[in-house]
Amino acid sequence: MTYASLYGQSLSDPESFWRERAAEIPWLEFPKAILDQDANGAWRWFGGGRTNTCWLAVDRHVDEGRGGQTALIYDSPVTGAVVRFTFAELKSRVAKVAGGLAALGVGQGDRVVIYMPMVPEAAIAMLACARIGAVHSVVFGGFAAPELANRIDDAAPKAVLSASCGIEVATVIPYKPLLDEALRLARQPVDHCVVLQRPQCEAALTPGRDLDWAAWEADGEPADWVAVDAHDPLYILYTSGTTGKPKGVVRDHGGHAVALHWSMQAIYGVDAGDVFWAASDVGWVVGHSYIVYGPLLRGCTAVLFEGKPVRTPDAGVFWRVIADHRVNCFFVAPTAFRAIKKEDPDCLLKRDYDISSLRYQFVAGERLDPPTYHWLCEHLDVPVIDHWWQTETGWPMCANLAGVELMQTRPGSPTLPVPGYDLRVVDEDGREVGPRQEGAVVVKDPLPPGAFTTLWGDHERFVDAYWSRFPGFYLTGDGGYRDADGYMYIMGRIDDVINVAGHRLSTGELEEVAASHPAVAECAVVGVRDADKGQVPFGLLVLKDGVNVAAAALKAELVATMRAQVGAFANFKQAVVVKRLPKTRSGKILRQALRRLIDGEPVVAPSTIDDPAIIGEIEEALRAGGRP
Ligand code: COA
Ligand code: AMP
Predict the structure, then answer these.
(1) Phi then psi for 174, rounded to 5 degrees?
(2) 391 Cβ closer than 6 Å to some ligand 2 atom
């Protein structure tokens, strides 16, 4: 089947398209309705279907005779460990952990927060929750205590699963003090914490609340999977919106399983028995979809890597992992390749490894800048495929479908819309624009299976944030254009979300932290260009009248506060003090103008600005602050 015919069918007859895809996986009860609307008017897939994601990802492979196949390879250059789990071994570990959760009183619909580094127990914990119908919410291990506390308050978990530490290159990061602090800050009480003790740093446990993972798992009575409705929530994953309050993206069992299972073959061109590696973190959507669920749903071997592209031990580690585990398809954020390119510009370290198993190189998480694309094409003998998606959709919206029909790639473009996504580029009034004209990228409803169905506990925000700007269309938050052949170009966010080394952050969240400093009257944080990380945050601070503080000292304090309040991965390192912020007459901060000014681009004062003289003032402050 060609890409064009498949895409055409997905839009002209979505129900038959997705009925066929749904029939590619087993069900306990096949859905009665392929597509319908719930009481809120939201589109829902596979109503009446009965399933369980853990059964589909683990048990059924054992039942189908793949129990001896490797399901998961944990490769950890930071500890020196390489551990393989067959599907049968994974099943028995997951069943024990599921039993341990049940013993803590966790049942169907209850939430479990998972705050863990990249260890196999993180994936086991996710699958164990799915097994008993509990809803997991994985919080990226780089988040600081207040961010973890916010998520605990929103998800109200019955238990938190964590580890004693993470390892960042050679630095051991104790997690337990962060967990303790988060539980102190959270309004929501948590009765049970289970802590995986790692030998690099054992944590002191709080009697009555904390349990030692090893003993708890050993005591767990293996639990069988339970049947859930296709619409039942599988997980909540918090992501940054335009305000400080993160959005709890909710994904269901049925649509998620169908979409991810199909995407592995159609998009990534892999099937059962193939080895798939996504070098991300379980705390991000890439980790959910393509470290854990996607590969396992398809019966692939998944690689879980606890390391960095460089320094663990060198810029050759990606090639080493591909060679050691005979990886067939590799997926990582472009920033990782920029880090490698900086240390090994001619890719010499690759020569030490046989990476002939590799069939495709996928990248996503941020725009694949053409220089990095060309570098990859020069050094790899396989198709380099940029693809575009986000936490909300859970799987790609644009890609070059390796398993359907490989199209010619174009630098800077994630190629064409994926079947199921009716993408449009529209102007301010919602009118479609012509080729090469930039606008907001939107998706006509319904979103396909696997995309989020609501925001946890806040359906109103789901409607307001995503569906109210252009009724009937999902607002992706990205801007871009199409060329004359329909190739999409995603140029960046049109809202206040920024992307730092593939990590999504809200400038609103960073502003809230900066504004809480006693010397700061007002501030703006914008994302500015960075050669390595794509974007980094930059703060402009207006001081309270009468405050006398040295700019350097204030900046240092804010850098430390951002690390403690949000996390080091936010990379907040730059800020200048200004007299005032450029605003429209109605008081809105002119962020785009600020971004351009900091990036050193020419700025014409917008007609809406309240006082054009402010542009010169900011330029001067930037120069004084050492910015060219
Ligand atoms: N736990 C604790 N701290 C973390 C962390 C985690 N999980 N992840 C990052 N940090 C810390 C880093 O140790 C660093 O701390 P430092 O300032 O004390 O040195 C800081 O946050 C900044 O991290 P980062 O921006 O990641 O820079 P880096 O130099 O450590 O690594 C890259 C740069 C490119 C190697 C790294 O950002 C990377 O691998 N990015 C890919 C991201 C990704 O996979 N995103 C998922 C979307 S697909
Ligand atoms: P996240 O939800 O963390 O996955 O971040 C999603 C955002 O990352 C998108 O809305 C885009 O802004 C950006 N993004 C992800 N992949 C790409 C890509 N291939 N090209 C351009 N931007 C991307």
Answers:
(1) -65, 125
(2) yes
Do 133 and 243 share a domain, yes or no?
A: yes
Q: Do 31 and 153 fall within a single domain?
A: yes
pLDDT tens column, 458-502: 999 999 999 999 999 999 999 999 999 999 999 999 998 999 999
Res 242: pLDDT? 74
pTM score: 0.96
Q: Assign 612 a pLDDT band (cuts: 50, 70, 90).
A: confident
- Write out pLDDT tens, residues 22-61: 999 999 999 999 999 988 888 999 999 999 999 999 999 9
H-helix segments, 104-139? 120-131
CA of 543 to the centre of ligand 1 (A): 31
Same domain assignment for residues 442 and 532:
no
**627 pLDDT above the threshold of 80:** no
- Going by alpha carbons, the residue nearest to atom 3 of ligand 2 is 504
Q: Do 426 and 533 share a structural domain?
A: no
* Claim to verify: residue 442 and residue 569 sit in the same structural domain: no
Q: Round the CA-based radius of gyration of the chain to a whole number and report it.
A: 24
Task: Calculate the average pLDDT of the chain.
Answer: 96
- Contact present, 67 and 48 (Cβ < 8 Å): no
Query: Residue 628: pLDDT band by 50, 70, 90 thresholds?
Result: low
The ligand 2 atom at the shortest distance from the C-alpha of residue 491 is 21
The residue segments making up the domain with residue 583 are 503-625
Q: Is residue 363 part of a domain?
A: no
Give the Cα separation of 96 and 74 in Å (integer): 19
Distance CA 111, CA 242 (A): 25
Closest to 165 in 3D by CA, of 119, 198, 133, 206? 198
CATH value at residue 591: 3.30.300.30
Distance from residue 569's CA to the centre of ligand 1 (Å)? 5
Domain count, the chain: 2
Q: Which of 249, 288, 367 to mutate to test the pocket of ligand 2 (most atoms within 8 A of CB)?
A: 367
The amino acid at 244: G
**What's the CA gap between 609 and 252, in Å, rounded?**
45
